[in-house]
């Protein structure tokens, strides 16, 4: 809910516009689906945190444009003052890598190569976003947007370094292990 309040501080938006804003601005580290957005908009409007008014239709039936209210700004400020809770990361690639001896080297290497390529493309997109943020310097939010973007850039740069090191190690290991070598579970007679 707070993410929607925060986005509405930038400008009034419809539910559809909010979904686009999530995808285009914070989608690399936060996700909200339309199935979450629309019910939250109704709850927030009922609570007086936002106000809706009919907007231009642009081919959409009953388009509502929402603005944050004073009560909504107070709620957002209260939420922003609370210490963020640590997140427990779940990373399926790392989980599969952890058990990688049970797979063929080609399978594990392919996972890492595809992750590195995917994240390389995201890094390129971050470069484009950096240019967009520079053009939006008139917004008081722009320095904060740049800080969040920079976190993502540094994180993905670290992922790229990790992938390079990991691929080198996987290639080294694959030379030591014959293609038909059993995993440890088979070596020890486990089933």
Question: Notable features of this structure?
Answer:
191 residues; 8 helices; two-stranded antiparallel sheet; elongated; 5% strand; mainly alpha
Describe this structure as you would to a colleague.
- The chain is mainly alpha-helical and 191 residues long.
- The protein is 63% helix and 5% strand.
- The chain has helices at residues 2-8, 15-26, 34-46, 70-80, 92-98, 105-135, 142-176, 184-187, and strands at residues 50-54, 64-68.
- A two-stranded antiparallel sheet has the order 1-2.
- It is elongated.
- The model has no long low-confidence stretch (mean pLDDT 89).
Class from helix and strand fractions: mainly alpha
Sketch the major β-sheet. Answer: 2 strands, antiparallel
User: How many strand segments?
Assistant: 2
Percent helix among the residues?
Answer: 55-70%
- Strand fraction equals 5-15%
Mean pLDDT: 89
Radius of gyration: 23 Å
Low-confidence sequence ranges = none
N-to-C SSE series? HHHEEHHHHH
Name the quaternary structure. Answer: single chain
Count of helical stretches: 8
Distance between the termini: 48 Å
Principal-axis shape: elongated
Query: Order of strands side by side in the largest beta sheet?
Result: 1-2
Sequence-ordered SSE layout with sheet pairings:
Elements: H1 2-8, H2 15-26, H3 34-46, E1 50-54, E2 64-68, H4 70-80, H5 92-98, H6 105-135, H7 142-176, H8 184-187
Antiparallel strand pairs: 1-2
Helix pairs in contact: 2-3, 6-7
């Amino acid at each position: 809910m707070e993410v929607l309040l925060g986005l509405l501080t930038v400008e009034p938006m419809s539910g559809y516009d909010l979904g686009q804003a999530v995808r285009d601005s914070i989608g690399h580290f936060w996700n909200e689906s339309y199935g979450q957005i629309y019910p939250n908009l109704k709850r927030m409007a009922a609570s007086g945190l936002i106000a809706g008014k009919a907007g231009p239709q642009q081919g959409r039936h009953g388009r509502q444009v929402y603005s944050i209210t004073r009560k909504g700004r107070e709620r957002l400020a209260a939420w922003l003052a609370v210490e963020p809770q640590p997140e427990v990361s779940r990373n399926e690639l790392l989980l599969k890598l952890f058990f990688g001896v049970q797979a063929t080297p080609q399978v594990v290497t392919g996972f890492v190569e595809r992750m590195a390529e995917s994240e390389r493309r995201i890094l390129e997109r971050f470069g484009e976003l950096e240019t967009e943020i520079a053009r939006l310097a008139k917004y008081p939010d722009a320095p904060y947007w740049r800080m969040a973007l920079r976190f993502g850039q540094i994180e993905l740069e670290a992922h790229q370094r990790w992938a390079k090191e990991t691929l080198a190690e996987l290639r080294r290991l694959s030379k030591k292990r014959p293609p038909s070598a059993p995993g440890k579970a088979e070596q020890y007679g486990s089933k």
